[in-house]
Amino acid sequence: MLRVGIGHDTHRLAEGRPLILAGVRIDHSRGLVGHSDADVVLHAVADALLGAAGLGDIGEHYPDTDPQWKGLDSARLLGEVVEQVGRAGWRTINCDLVIHAQEPKLGLHKAALRENLARLLRVEPSFVNVKAKTGELVGPIGRAEAIACEAIVLIDSQS
Length: 159
What we know:
By secondary structure, this protein is α+β, with helices and mostly antiparallel strands.
């Protein structure tokens, strides 16, 4: 049996924060603001996995109102989600995502993002695709005020 899930996340950029995407630290003057490390890529992928498995969303499992998740490393969050999805009888087949960012330019980082995301999902890198798009100077992404990510995953039953 196959299932598809979609995830989305957006966080604003601010001075004094590290920029972490797909668990990879990117050199940039600003980073994403959030209760956790605000990794929009890993949050979108986690939501896509949870949705595909019919297990809700990360807000239900890791609410930003709970102080225990303050500063959470999103790689840990995704690892726990992969475990939870596995316990429910599912495994990841592939993941495709789009990162929306006016800056920084992500072309030189896409291979590292892909490799790390594949490692976290426990799949071969060829089963992960990372695309980057600018906001074409429109809206909060185009004004470089925020970064967003949309992810889709395909899972299948382990039986």
